[in-house]
Design brief:
It is a single chain. The protein is an all-alpha fold and about 120 residues long. It is elongated and about 60 Å long. Helix content is about 60%, strand content about 0%. The chain contains 7 helices and no strands.
Length: about 120
Amino acid sequence: MMQIQQGMQRLTNAAPGLLPGMGINPMGGTARPPPAPGNLPNNAYNMQNLMSQMVSSLNSGQPAGGVRAAPPNPEVAYQAQLQQLTQMGFVDAHANLQALISTNGDLNSAIERLLQQRDQMT
C-alpha cells in the first residue's frame, strides 16, 4: 500500500494535472468524475483514452496498443519460418517450432537459438 501511495505521489509531482484530469484524487478520498472530453486539453484527453484502453485490456485479458497475443496454433502461424529452417538444414521440427515460439517467430533469433543448442550437444 505504501508503494502505491509513493508511486501516486511521484506521479502527482511529475504530472500535476494528470490524475485529477482522469478523475483520480491523488490525496485519497472520493474521486470526482472525470471532466467531459470537450473540457480536457488534447493531451489530457489522449492520456485518458490511453489509460482507459490499458485498463480495458487488463480486464479483458487482451493485449493493449495493437500488440498481438501469441498465435493459437504456432505451426500454422510460423509455417513459412518452419519451411525456411528445414531448407537451411534444421530438420528437427519440434526444436524448430520451440525456437520460433520462444522468439515470437523471429527467424534470425530462432537460428541463433538452434545453433546454440547444437553447440551445447557437441
